[in-house]
Each structure stands twice: as structure tokens, then as C-alpha cells.
Specification:
Strand content: under 5%
Radius of gyration: 15 Å
Largest sheet: none
Helix content: over 70%
Number of strands: 0
């Protein structure tokens, strides 16, 4: 019983760390925190926080895809390095992005990461971002 409470507490803490990492402009760090939160919340049976961690994971992957599309894949940095300029680009709004990632590329990336449920959410988010950025978004099932 005490062990489950500890896992629940640590899972919630990891989810909060993921939120703060995302706000600080480090989607890769946020991804790691959300993934840890998912595992701990699933083990503790904390369904609400598990769902929140899944949502955060999708947000972090979509933001990383947007940043990669804007900067190009060759300028990626290590997972522990924070990128404060990402936060600035996000505050400018999605329509100001020059190119949004292809929705199918985001879904393929998430499916390869072993998160098919998150892949569906990421696909929809990428399609929305593509539409807002002025690209044609065709989500077909």
C-alpha cells in the first residue's frame, strides 16, 4: 500500500517536471519525464495522471517535431541540453512557423517509439499545426 502511494507521488512529480520542462523549452527532457510518469502512474493505477502524462508526451513530441521542422534535422542537440529559444518560437505562435512537420512523419516517429496511442494524438496535433501553418492537412483514416 505504501509502495503504491510512493509510486503515485513520484509519477505525479515526474508529470509536473515534464510540464515545467516543456514550459522551459526543452521538449526532449519533457518527453523523458512524461514517459517516466506514464510508467509510474500505470503501475500505481493512477488513471487520471496516466492520461495527463500521455497527453504531455504527445505535446512534447509534436513540439519537438515542430522545432525540428523549423531548424532542420542537422541542428538537433543532446537530450539534456535546454533550448530556451524554443520557448520564444512557441510564443510567436504556430502560424509563424515556416514549415510544419508532415503528420505522417510524426505518427511514424511515435509508433516507432512504441507509443501507438500517443501516435494517434500526435498525428492529429501535427495535422492541426500543419493547417495553422498554412500547409494542407489531410488526415485520412
Amino acid at each position: 500500500m505504501q509502495e503504491l502511494k510512493e509510486k503515485k507521488r513520484w509519477g505525479r512529480l515526474q508529470k509536473a517536471k515534464g510540464d515545467w520542462s516543456l514550459l522551459a523549452g526543452s521538449p526532449r527532457d519533457a518527453f523523458e519525464h512524461y514517459k517516466s510518469a506514464m510508467e509510474l502512474s500505470r503501475t500505481a493505477g493512477d488513471a487520471i495522471w496516466y492520461g495527463a502524462a500521455v497527453e504531455g508526451l504527445a505535446h512534447s513530441r509534436v513540439l519537438e517535431a515542430l522545432v525540428t521542422a523549423r531548424r532542420g534535422p542537422s541542428s538537433s542537440s543532446s537530450t539534456s541540453q535546454h533550448r530556451p529559444d524554443v520557448a520564444a518560437s512557441v510564443t510567436m505562435g504556430v502560424p509563424s512557423l515556416q514549415a510544419a512537420p508532415a503528420a505522417a512523419a510524426v505518427q511514424t516517429d511515435m509508433t516507432a517509439a512504441g507509443e501507438p496511442a500517443v501516435a494517434d494524438k500526435a498525428l492529429l496535433a501535427a495535422a492541426a499545426a500543419q493547417t495553422l501553418a498554412g500547409g494542407s492537412s489531410l488526415v485520412r483514416g
